[in-house]
Amino acid sequence: MAKRDPKRNPSRPARPSRPSRPRPAAPGESAGRRQHSSHGPRANTKRASLPPRKSKNKNKPTELPQPELTLGELLHPPFRIGHGYDLHRLEPLAPAGSGRPFILGGVLIDPAGTFGRGPVAHSDGDVLLHAITDALLGAIGQHDIGQLFPDNAPENDGRDSADFLLEAVRRVHAAGYRVGNLDCTVILEKPKLSPHKSSIRGKLASWLAVPEAMVNLKGKTHEKVDAVGESRAVEAHVVVLLIRSVA
Ligand code: MG
User: Distance from the CA of 200 to the center of ligand 1, in angstroms?
Assistant: First the structure.
């Protein structure tokens, strides 16, 4: 007869103790490794051979179906984006210094020389056209302006930067794209850019073969700090969007 526990309810008969039975081995699990039942010392928690658990986290992101793209679409996407940046040091105009006449976006922005400084460059030093050229080349994944037009080549000495821009536009068209729009920021302390904005946008639109409305130009100062703010440099940032022009 089973021995009664004095702490238990005397009206409820004690269940006879049963020897624990081992759980059947899961498929692929070695029965010899299962040494303990769940009632004994810590059960074997090895799960490598058990089927994977389903996640209880309903917020866990699920994999989205991937669109099927053709090789042509991968190599020739409908849009491409490019970024360009350039900076030139400003010095007193020659012969007092090495500064060239201050041309920006193809426009002479200090025609009377009252500012008295200009960009130091091997070419004409047009910082905005250089940044746009790099943005276009970057969008189609081709080199950069320095690789195409080295600053130690004699033929580039004093060269009109419109040549660089037009070569980049030619390459964009050859790659099957056209310019969608571009956004430019020029940072300089002096001279003021605003009187020349309209002329610059007109020239850019003509060279890029887009309506003027697709060319944005912003002028900013550098709050009189650092080289740009002290009129010792000028810089430009450009973002351009290309649109595929062929199917
Ligand atoms: Mg440059």
Answer: 17
